[in-house]
Amino acid sequence: MINLKSKKMITLKNIIIKAMRSVSYRKTATRLGGLLNFVRFVDTKSKCFNEKFKFAVDNKISTANWSYKNNTHHINISENCIEIANTQTVRSTKESIAFYKAVIRHEIGHALYTDRSSIVGQWCSDYNIPFGLFNLFEDVRIEYKIVKDYPQFKKFMWFKYMDIEDESETASNAILIMKSKEAGTRTDGGNSKTNPLTSFVPSLKNLKNHYHYFLNGKDRGSMTTKQILKRYYMRSCHAICSLEVVEITKDFVSTFGNEMPSQYEYENIINGEVDPNFSPQKNSSKNYTKADDDGGYSNCDYSDLPLAKSSFDNADVNYSKTIANRLKPIVKNYGRNRNKLSSSGSRLHIKNAIAKMENSFRSIKSKKGKPTITMLVDYSGSMMDTIMRNGGREFICAFKRLSDSNDIKLNLIFSMDRFGYLLNDHSVDDIMAIIPNGNHEALDNNLKRFFPLVKKSDLVLLFTDGYLTGNIVNESQYRNQGIELVACCIPSKNDVANVRKYCNGYFTKTFIDQSPTSLATRVVKYAQDKQKI
Fold first, then answer.
1. d(C-alpha 450, C-alpha 477), whole Å
2. What sections of 257-375 are H helices per DSSP?
């Protein structure tokens, strides 16, 4: 980096060191002084008063981190931080120093407000909350508090140093955009009447209009997506401690799933403790177009999936039995073809017989074997309502029960984050326990990955809400190979029109129904009428 005034080259390491010194400046008659000096030696009520700080440049980390060990605050800053800055910041030494100064102020905020014990990491592990997602909501809280408690140091001004997106495809990225725009401090934590917080919510792409909002683990009903994002953001701003942020993050996961912005994927450390459940959201060394070396198709283990055995009860299990029982009489007629009327056969045609016609008989023949159905289930975060509240699990498990009773052959595949898991050998209870929380659907990847099974199927069902975030299925390619893809979904009442719109945009044949039993019946009857099975 070049200093335009002196024309000298200044390294990023020197810029970081200058920023570190800047936050440590003492207050003088002409200088405000640095935040670190103020909280260590001036503000006697500060949690960091007279405490030790140790800074280091560490390029092994992605951006920056804070930890508290041996009565000392450790703040590590990476030169890689500059990668998230905009071009104007990168080209200016002054702006680069100001940017790194804001990063260091942020880490000092963790020292001031973040819980220093290991209990936060333990709670996140117990609730299966990614550390990166917790860090996002904790960052919202500390940045709001540090500006409120120390207004003389002004706002962070992230929107000055970074390019902020105007739209978001995921809920967590929308929270990140609101944080980057400092929506909390600019709207007084959402309390401003002239500058509403919803004006800082970005344009939402591929997100449903309504979700279920959770407060302290309790479902508070369906609300608009923007209102829900506003509430989670406000709760984070006003949270008293880090443990309260864990509860907020848990509620957020119940609504939108475990997905998180890519910038936070590797922010998987809380006070020096690495996330024990960490796994990359994207990029895998697995081959997604053929079976694994061990001969199987799944590229993850069942234990790797998000599980919650307590998320269902006997009523859910019994409902899946009811649906399966309704389907059995229809399934028995699969493949039964009526021959043309003739003078001989096994069944009498009543009308022709009364009319004393010669062709008064018909015979009914059945195909050999059982119908084969491949069901590819979208288990991304947007399917939370469909799966957990609208009867999606019961719909899926009804087909699994038909398979267990040897009425059909079923290939049941769960698809999320480019991972595909074949659940043929798992029980109904195992399937009921899986929670949708993927960042992406990966439908096309897994159709190709499991293509040998798809090709041999009489019916290919895609159970999805149509809110696809890439990896779009090219239906015509499969149709040219004699494979018809049938999309189906069980949306909430407020989301029927949108789900129908999106599904019809991607697939020729779709079934949208609010009743799991009705949807299953329509799908099976369609397969029978088209003689696909």
1. 15
2. 314-331, 350-354
Q: pLDDT per residue over 281-303, tens digit each?
A: 543 333 333 333 333 445 456 77
Distance CA 499, CA 394 (A): 19
As given in the structure block, the two tokens for residue 383 are 């399917």
Give the pairing of strands 347-348 and 361-362.
Answer: antiparallel
Q: For residue 103, what pLDDT is reported?
A: 95
Query: What is the separation, in whole angstroms, between the first and last Cα of the chain?
Result: 67
Distance of CA 74 to the CA centre of its chain: 32
Burial (Cβ within 10 Å: 0-12, 13-18, ≥19) of residue 321: middle
CB atoms within 10 A of CB 23: 24
Strands 210-215 and 2-3, by their bridges, are unpaired
Residue type, 439: N
3-class SS of residue 359: coil
Alpha helices per DSSP H over 379-432: 384-388, 392-404, 428-432
Confidence of residue 180 (pLDDT cuts 50, 70, 90): very high
* All CATH 3.40.50.410 domain ranges in the chain, comma separated: 302-334+370-529
In 3-state terms, what secondary structure has residue 375?
A: strand
Angle between the N-to-C axes of helices 93-113 and 131-149, in degrees from 0 to 180, rounded to the nearest 10: 100
The CATH architecture to which 302-334+370-529 belongs is 3-Layer(aba) Sandwich (3.40)
Residue 290 confidence (pLDDT): 34
Q: Residue 118 CA to chain centroid, in angstroms?
A: 26
DSSP strand pairing (167-168 vs 203-204):
parallel
Length of the chain: 533
Tokens matching residue 186: 């600019």
DSSP at 339: P
Task: List helix spans (H) across 450-508.
Answer: 451-455, 475-479, 496-506
In this prediction the pTM is 0.66
